[in-house]
Amino acid sequence: MFKIIPQIILALFVFVANAQHPPVFDAMTTDSSFINLYDLNINLVKYSYKPNGVKFLVVHDNEDTGVKAGFDYIRWSGGELIDCQYGGVRDYNFSYMDDIYRIDPNAIYTERGINTRLKKDEFSSNEVEKALNSAGKQIIDFYNPKSTGYILTLHNNADGGFGIASYLPGYELASAADSVYLNPEMDGDDMLYVTDLKLFNSFKKANVNVMLQSKFVENDGSLSVYAMQNNIPYVNVEVQHGHLEENLRLIEIAIVALKEHGMIKKQ
Ligand SMILES: [Zn+2]
Hints:
This protein has a domain at 26-90 and 144-260: Aminopeptidase. It has helices at residues 4-20, 64-77, 111-117, 127-143, 145-148, 197-205, 223-229, 244-260; strands at 29-37, 40-49, 55-58, 79-85, 92-96, 99-103, 151-157, 177-181, 191-194, 210-213, 234-240. A hairpin with a 2-residue loop joins strand 1 and strand 2.
């Protein structure tokens, strides 16, 4: 009589796993890569439809407006999206040798970032830093910016608090920015974050909120710092949770600019 229970649990698991990020239409195909970070399983899922050189990356698993907007773009224009899935939360939480660790998945792309931003017990093992370094490398390899020619990420933020104004002179993140352009008619939470001056100028011309990362930005392990160190043009399209239409509009503006500067290689 208990024989059926494992099947039910498995069926529920599959249902929940699929329900979290459903492919939006049947013709979309998927390909996966897995990272085992001790007791945390990270599933990198690549969704594809008519690959055309446009490729999105979502590193925070609780930021689904970006995933939906990326799917909307791909549905009409084709492209690929890599979504990092690890339980629908923002941070990686795991334990190793009875110690508890926590880190922002956007802090694992440089050794220095991992070292300074890992939340851990005082005498925890450096083995964990090596494992995080290799997890970051696996995500970058799966995205493969060398073949793509750029990195295009999608992030979502909360209403108020952090936004484009955070980078203005005198505000808390001013030192991260070389230049800021602000369109006062836009919601300040909706913005582009770039590492390339040509892209910054294109987005300014398109009259959208945009900040250009400073060459002297703190090495916090984020993908934008990795991109700068490796001379890969980087664009983050970041909007407030739920701003789906604005997210899609900014994605389209981002892709037009990447194409204008020959940064999207045709596949
Ligand atoms: Zn994010």
